[in-house]
């Protein structure tokens, strides 16, 4: 099956601008990219009209929670992949804090099978570092790799014991697999939900200090240096973490890092008050100074990629209020519009920079074949309307959950169609 995507705007890095081009896919790959002034013969092909819209390599999200198996009331693989597609994502990597925890080959296979049958984007499963993510006993890394896991992480919690982490890294290294870490020292957090900043001060709350994250980043950078493993830091949110990653990179440690849109556009001082748990996520929103530091970290390459940390929770759970509700916000359907509106339309970043951090950079960091709009590459494509402003309406999300602090925000950069492996999997209704 051949598909022509006509008259779209493709980012041209040399020219530093969008250029009108036609893209043809064939058998799941990109077959041709031709200048927009030509009139391609589309006879016998499916045609997608992308006139005036951005055509990009599909976005890649290396940190998401699909909640399947076990928490299907929050999300499942069918709805989670639809939410991803609606956000322009064509590849997503799902975290193992499911029920059961993804700590056996059987559960990895369950995810891959269900994704193949009911998913509409590519799903790459991570497996847990420790059994049940309890930090006590390593999982069977070789069997999990064999089953299709792409890396090891206990996301949701930090690995508290340094020897456990070192053993995990040594074993992962021997299998040529990465270790992905949620960095959080439990002894420094206890019971707090907001960061140690002006919001916590104003409301008399105990705060989560920046060191609770950065202590693990520093510890793990040393362990990564010692073991030589590819070590990837989850959802970087503090100035101190950025500083440590920058130092580790400068001395050649195999370390990479990610940041979420919410940590780039919100600080603790934006939290409106104590009743809305949609402002509660882990790591918490940090101070404006930290926001500046993670932006600079992403800009200078200290932080490699953008991820959503899509973390759906039910309305009932979030209605318990910030002290009792679980941490996390959904992210797929607002990620690109938020960053495009806040950083590209304002002129701080080029469109090419944002696209790179959401496509070819994650592909580079995790050795994926996708993420590039080139002849011969897999035909994973995202088509985006850059011109029309629209309000974020959480009740319309394809996700089962709508726990977001961005409801009502007016944004540009809304995906209109998503192609995976040459197949149109989603179009905006
Ligand atoms: N980020 C969150 O606030 N929550 C995540 C866990 C995690 O990513 O650590 C979740 O699973 O809900
Ligand atoms: Zn986490
Ligand atoms: Zn997460």
Automatic annotation (TrEMBL):
The residues listed in the UniProt record as binding substrate, with positions renumbered to this chain, are 65-67, 97, 282, 313, 327-328
GO BP field? 'de novo' UMP biosynthetic process; purine nucleobase catabolic process
What EC class is this?
Answer: hydrolase
Q: What is its EC number?
A: 3.5.2.3
Annotated Amidohydrolase domain ranges read: 350-425
Q: What does this protein do?
A: Catalyzes the reversible cyclization of carbamoyl aspartate to dihydroorotate.
Q: What's the protein here called?
A: Dihydroorotase
């Amino acid at each position: 099956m051949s598909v022509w995507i006509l008259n779209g705007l493709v980012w041209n890095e040399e020219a530093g601008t969008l250029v009108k081009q036609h893209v043809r896919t064939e058998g799941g790959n990109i077959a041709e990219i031709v200048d927009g002034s030509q009139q391609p013969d589309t006879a016998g092909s499916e045609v997608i009209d992308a006139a005036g819209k951005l055509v990009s390599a599909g976005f890649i999200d290396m940190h998401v929670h699909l909640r399947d198996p076990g928490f299907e009331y929050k999300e499942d693989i069918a709805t989670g992949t639809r939410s991803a597609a609606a956000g322009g994502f064509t590849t997503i990597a799902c975290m193992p804090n499911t029920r059961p925890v993804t700590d056996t080959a059987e559960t990895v296979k369950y995810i891959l099978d269900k994704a193949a049958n009911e998913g509409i984007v590519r799903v790459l499963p991570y497996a847990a570092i420790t059994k049940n993510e309890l930090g006590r006993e390593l999982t069977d890394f070789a069997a999990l790799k064999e089953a299709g896991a792409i890396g090891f992480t206990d996301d949701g919690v930090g690995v508290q014991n340094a020897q456990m982490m070192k053993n995990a890294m040594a074993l992962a290294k021997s299998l040529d697999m990465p270790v992905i870490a949620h960095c959080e020292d439990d002894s420094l957090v206890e019971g707090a939900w907001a960061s140690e900043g002006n919001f916590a001060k104003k409301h008399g709350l105990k705060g989560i200090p920046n060191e609770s994250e950065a202590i693990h980043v520093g510890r793990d950078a040393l362990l990564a240096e010692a073991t030589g493993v590819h070590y990837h830091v989850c959802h970087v949110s503090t100035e101190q973490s950025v500083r440590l990653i920058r130092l580790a990179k400068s001395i050649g440690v195999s370390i990479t890092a990610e940041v979420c849109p919410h940590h780039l556009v919100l600080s603790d001082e934006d939290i409106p008050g104590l009743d809305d748990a949609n402002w509660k996520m882990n790591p918490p929103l940090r101070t404006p100074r930290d926001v500046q530091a993670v932006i600079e970290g992403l800009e200078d390459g200290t932080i490699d990629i953008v991820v959503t940390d899509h973390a759906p929770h039910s309305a009932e759970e979030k209605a318990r209020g910030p002290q009792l509700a679980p941490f996390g916000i959904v992210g797929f359907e607002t990620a690109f519009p938020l960053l495009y509106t806040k950083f590209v339309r304002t002129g701080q970043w080029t469109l090419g920079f944002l696209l790179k951090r959401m496509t070819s950079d994650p592909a580079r960091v995790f050795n994926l074949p996708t993420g590039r709009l080139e002849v011969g590459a897999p035909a994973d494509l995202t088509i985006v309307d850059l011109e029309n402003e629209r309000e974020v309406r959480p009740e319309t999300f394809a996700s089962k959950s709508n726990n977001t602090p961005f409801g009502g925000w007016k944004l540009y950069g809304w995906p209109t169609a998503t192609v995976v492996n040459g197949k149109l999997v989603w179009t905006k209704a």
